[in-house]
């Protein structure tokens, strides 16, 4: 399930591809077309992006195999956004992300990034609630980022503590089956 504000739920398949309550099901056909089962119409990636922005919960399933394709569709939208204008990620930051795949830190990094994005989203929401109708000025941004930096520092400290605890499990710095540095 994909939403703009909530962590994706598990994606167990319901009988015969039936929709879970509150989750909109999109089907992807071999011809690359997306079909919205709620509106009984074909949609585009731009429509799916609009659903994300509107906070609509959805899943994308392969029409034939019922495989969950939600993540790949969301990655397609990110790719289009990155190539279509001002990118959010530099080549260096993308290379850093790629380096985490397959390593021992892959799961930790995914969780850290998710918590960082949620903390940032929460602060944006608090700012909007506290200052309705106010323009988002550079001064407001500076205040918001100060709070974000503090939350980021706290999350980083939690992450370091988790790493320290993991090191205690492997006193010689090598997990079972792992390679020594």
Automatic annotation (TrEMBL):
It comes from Pelomonas nitida. This is Polyhydroxyalkanoate synthesis repressor PhaR. Residues 25-84 form the PHA accumulation regulator DNA-binding N-terminal domain. Pfam families: PHB_acc (PF05233), PHB_acc_N (PF07879). Residues 89-127 form the PHB accumulation regulatory domain.
